[in-house]
Amino acid sequence: MIYTYSQYLDFLLHAKQFGSIIPMRSTTYSPGEIVMRHDVDLDIEPLVKMAEQEENAGVRSTFFILTSCHSYNPRSNYNAGILKNLADGGWEIGLHYDPSIYRTEDNVLLDEKMRLECRILEDITGQKVESISIHIPSLHGEYPFFDGFFNAYDERIFNDFVYMSDSRMNFRGKNPYEFVKRAVEKPLQVLLHPLHFTEDGIGYPDIHAEYIKRHIAHIDEEHTKVNSGYAASKNTGLYDYMMRSE
């Protein structure tokens, strides 16, 4: 179990005994490297506390961001500020690319769209996008590669011996503390989703409920600032209003 922020810090300090924890753009595919990757599927806000633990451990990682996500907008003022601060602090911001939204198998077009999405992130962070992670590749049955980019599904860091993921909060029989010991033999890749990490280590569906509560608070705050009619009409927070007894 490593799903509290304090446990994550303990895991990082443990892993450092067996290899250097690095962002994907820094890999040379050599033994002694642990590529730390975070696919951001639900919400950008948890990245802040993940990064705090990595700062405490003296390491950096890659956060892969969806530009086509339904549940967060990387270009919102709040989220863009988080991403810019991370990039300025030495973290890598990569593209979490979902080719399925383009409804085409034309590789030339998919490459063009991928580079367009990279430019969106580059405009936010001022940092060149160097690494790509495909969103839910097992669902699409494809692992496309693009010239000039590090790819999370490069076989040198993506096979059963060198790759570990917490997808669906399931390490699939791998013990994270034992797995990182393999770094002395091979370069490793560890995928940890920020949505799984909280102060108290809660699980599904509480993780999603907390996201909704947090998102409602942002909506409430924003509309209270800019909409005097909304502000005057309420005598409680929006979340409390929604949870009221009829």
Summarize this, please?
The chain is an alpha/beta fold and 246 residues long. Helix content is 38%, strand content 14%.
Give an overview in words.
This protein is an alpha/beta fold. The chain has 2 domains: 5-196, Glycoside hydrolase/deacetylase (TIM Barrel, Alpha-Beta Barrel); 206-242. It has helices spanning 5-15, 47-57, 77-88, 107-125, 137-140, 176-179, 206-226, 228-233, 238-242, and strands at 20-22, 33-40, 62-65, 92-97, 131-134, 150-151, 163-165, 188-191. Strands 1, 2, 3, 4, 5, 6, 7 and 8 form an 8-stranded parallel sheet that branches. Helix 1 runs parallel beside helix 2. The longest helix is centred in the last third of the chain and has 21 residues, at 206-226. The model has no long low-confidence stretch (mean pLDDT 94).
Fourth-level CATH superfamily of the largest domain:
Glycoside hydrolase/deacetylase
Poorly predicted segments: none
Oligomer: single chain
State Rg: 19 Å
Topology as a string of helices (H) and strands (E)? HEEHEHEHEHEEHEHHH
Count of distinct structural domains: 2
Would you state the CATH class of the largest domain? Alpha Beta
Mean pLDDT: 94
The helix count comes to 9
* Major sheet: 8 strands, parallel
Distance between the termini: 40 Å
As a percent range, the share of helical residues equals 25-40%
The shape, in one word, is globular
Number of strands: 8
Strand content: 5-15%
The CATH topology of the largest domain corresponds to TIM Barrel
CATH architecture of the largest domain: Alpha-Beta Barrel
Helix and strand composition category? alpha/beta
